[in-house]
Specification:
The protein has 581 residues and is of the alpha/beta class. Helix content is 28%, strand content 26%.
Length: 581
């Protein structure tokens, strides 16, 4: 392993300086190119020396020794730093390895990742071993430490969750605290435990990220006083400017459920806004198909097409994030000492690289991917196929709840009064109501209600993919739900659709029942089929994967199905408790 997370070994450092003195030859020399110097904010003509995984020099000088050096004539290319995704959720059906390797091929060579699923799927020791495994991936992988689960957990599980917060926060791969979705608990609920974690983050000199959609100026100011540094929930240019005015590093989002970036940039330009140094792009954990063109490169392209100056656009996609996280001595520029993450462009107007170097190795060359896969022993790290030691019973599918969940869009649910007979074997197809059950992965409890707006005809869907890694069952038919559940168990976790007694779709999620162990290109096609199937059964929205993920998420209004029961989000109250099995 060449690259250390925050330092190179003494022997390597001596070799790096020896390249400058001509006692060692660089491993790669990029000659006669035009590259972006983020510190001068200029396009510079010159050469870039690389030794293994590190940039040794960029400028007008040529190395005195080139014996054995791979020399690349890049006179027809413009080179920019590898792009940075500052807010990745690397478990949206894909896994951190498959996302990172795909991202690197499209020019995004650094990802700062959510750690949420490791808190549910494996123990801390194995999770920390995974962080070391991910250092072998071509992209640079950093992490953030969650303070809240985004749902409501039983007391024992909540205690286990909280016990992991500080060890994660103090890990050297973790460079941020948050994102803090449970900020109302701190601001209004007197949660001093979370406030302590926030202050410990500041003591550790790591930034804090918030999650403040629609926040007023008072909320933004008060959360700034409590320690927040950044926020990515702006939906308009005015919200961006409000956050900037209070000193927030501000993420501009272009995601599968919030593709706001084009309108935000249009609004900023209409307001004659010219200062972009505290902005960065994020795709906020989009679902696989949204990444067909890449991660950060489409964001930069949108910015260029909107009229943002090219240097500002590329710096928002790279250096600004690196500076914010305190890793600009490692990534985000093409200066001496940085990791050799380089994107080769045909023209500054096109941020899609024709060639990519990540950690000094080719990930794409002349538009062709170079894709050796990093070996990870998932089983050794506790991520096996899902094995449930319990079976579904008739009692698990009893629906007597008077209140159901009505979909406003993919992720927002409002309560509604149930007025149909839910004791039948199959709900009528003339309406868009379906049975909905959330069952503990270990078979301890169940929560039942109806969901309105997901389907008008699908017999059954079962998913081991959810925000808390528990099991979702929904559909019109009890027998089809049972059939889908049986098949989900047989394939070791995943998303299964059944209708009229037949399995019509299945997506195996062999890594803990949450993530697929397959290349991104293959997964994208599977997601396309899932969407087409669900739309044929009456799903009226665009992102069913996020619907499944966020059914139990307490950071979204108005009503949720959680491990504690049906919850009123605003009041933080259990309307109807979970039933022990």
């Amino acid at each position: 392993m060449n690259e250390q997370r925050f330092r190179w070994r003494n022997r390597q450092l001596r070799e790096h300086t020896a390249v400058v003195d001509g006692r060692l030859a660089p491993t790669k020399l990029i000659k006669n190119t035009t590259y972006l110097n983020v510190y001068l904010k200029q396009w510079i003509q010159g050469h870039i020396w690389i030794y293994n995984d590190r940039i040794i020099y960029s400028g007008s000088e040529l190395p005195p020794l080139v014996e054995g050096t791979e020399v690349i004539d890049a006179s027809d290319s413009y080179i920019v730093p590898g792009y940075i995704e500052p807010h990745a959720h690397p478990f949206q059906l894909y896994n951190p390895r498959s996302l990172a390797e795909y991202a690197a091929q499209t020019g995004t060579t650094t990802l700062i990742n959510d750690n949420l699923m490791w808190l549910f799927l494996t123990d801390q020791e194995k999770a920390f071993s995974l962080l070391e495994d991910f250092m072998e991936v071509s992209a640079s992988m950093y992490w953030w430490a969650r303070f809240d689960s985004q749902s409501a957990l039983p007391e024992e599980e909540q205690e286990e969750f909280e016990n992991q917060v500080l060890p994660w926060l103090h890990h050297d791969a973790v460079i941020q605290g948050g994102e803090i979705t449970a900020w109302p608990d701190v601001l209004y609920g007197g949660d001093d435990q979370m406030l302590h974690w926030m202050q410990e983050t500041k003591r550790s000199r790591k930034p804090l990220e918030g999650h403040l959609p629609g926040a007023s100026w008072k909320t933004l100011v008060k959360m700034k006083l409590l320690g927040l540094d950044s926020e990515h929930e702006s939906m308009t240019a005015d919200e961006v400017i409000e956050r900037l005015s209070h000193g927030y590093q501000t993420g501009l989002r272009y995601s599968s459920i919030r593709p706001d970036l084009p309108d935000i940039l249009k609004g900023l330009l209409e307001k004659n806004h010219k200062q972009y140094d505290r902005m960065m792009f994020t795709t906020d954990g989009s679902t696989p198909g949204f990444y067909r063109e890449g991660l950060i490169n489409p964001c930069i392209k949108i910015a260029l097409e909107a009229g943002i100056e090219d240097i500002d656009a590329y710096m928002m996609g790279s250096y600004q994030a690196a500076r914010h996280f305190g890793i600009e001595d490692r990534v985000g520029s093409l200066a001496a000492g940085r990791l050799a993450h380089l994107n080769f462009l045909s023209d500054p107007s096109d941020p899609n690289p024709h060639s990519v170097l990540a950690k000094g190795e080719w990930k794409k060359r002349d538009h062709q991917p170079v894709s050796p896969t990093t070996d990870i022993d998932w089983k050794k790290r506790g991520l096996e196929s899902l094995s449930l030691e319990w079976d579904l019973t008739e009692d698990d599918l009893q629906f007597s709840m008077p209140v159901g969940m009505n979909m406003v869009n993919e992720v927002i649910m409002k309560p509604y009064a149930i007025n149909l007979d839910a004791s039948v074997e199959r709900l009528p197809d003339k309406n868009n109501e379906a049975f909905l059950t959330l069952i503990d992965r270990d078979g301890k409890w169940t929560v039942n209600t109806l969901l309105k707006g997901f389907t008008d005809s699908l017999g059954g869907l079962v998913s081991s993919y959810s925000n808390t890694a528990d099991i979702i069952l929904l559909g019109k038919s009890r027998s089809d739900m049972k059939l889908a559940f049986k098949r989900m168990k047989e394939i070791g976790g995943g998303i299964v659709l059944a209708n009229q007694g037949e399995i019509v779709f299945e997506l195996p999620l062999s890594l803990g029942g949450m993530m697929a162990d397959m290349p991104m290109a293959e997964l994208m096609e599977e997601e396309v089929e899932l969407k087409e199937q669900l739309k044929s059964f009456g799903y009226a929205f665009d992102d069913p994967v996020y619907t499944l993920l966020f059914l139990s998420s307490m950071h979204l209004p108005f009503i949720r199905i959680t491990p504690l029961g049906i919850m009123d989000v605003k009041k933080d109250e259990i309307l109807y408790p979970a039933i022990m099995r």
